[in-house]
Amino acid sequence: MIRNAPVSIIMTEHVITLNKRDSLEKAEYLFKHHKIRHIPVVDKSKVIGMLSFTDLLRLSFADVTNETDTAVDVMVYNLFTIEQVMKRNVVTVTTSNTIKEVAEILAIREFHALPVVDNNSLAGIVTTTDLIKYLLKQF
């Protein structure tokens, strides 16, 4: 295991993002299509929030309906905006934070994903899955 390895070696660089003006229907599509669970909400490249698939599940039947049966979800989604549902005041890390530091934040704060930000701009995302894959490679 590399001591003080930067999170940049395990983070995902090409991040799927949402804008606060996007629809929740689009968010559900992105979650399902890309098989992801967290999407940073950005204004240009600045992170202003985080939306999780769990946030959508609290509003809808997104996980129990098939991809063609969206009428109920669309009605519910039209009642809310991304800005209303997203988490604000997002904790972020930089590309120079170590994997250990990121693991501590994920464990202590009970987060599952953290946006990686450099110079106020989204550089990537790191998830608990990224961390577990990294640890498995060490064995």
TrEMBL record:
Residues 11-70, 86-139 form the CBS domain. It comes from the Bacteria. InterPro entries: CBS_dom (IPR000644), CBS_dom_sf (IPR046342), Diverse_CBS-Domain (IPR051257). Keywords: CBS domain. PANTHER family: CBS DOMAIN-CONTAINING PROTEIN, CBS DOMAIN-CONTAINING PROTEIN CBSX3, MITOCHONDRIAL. This is CBS domain-containing protein. It comes from Tamlana crocina.
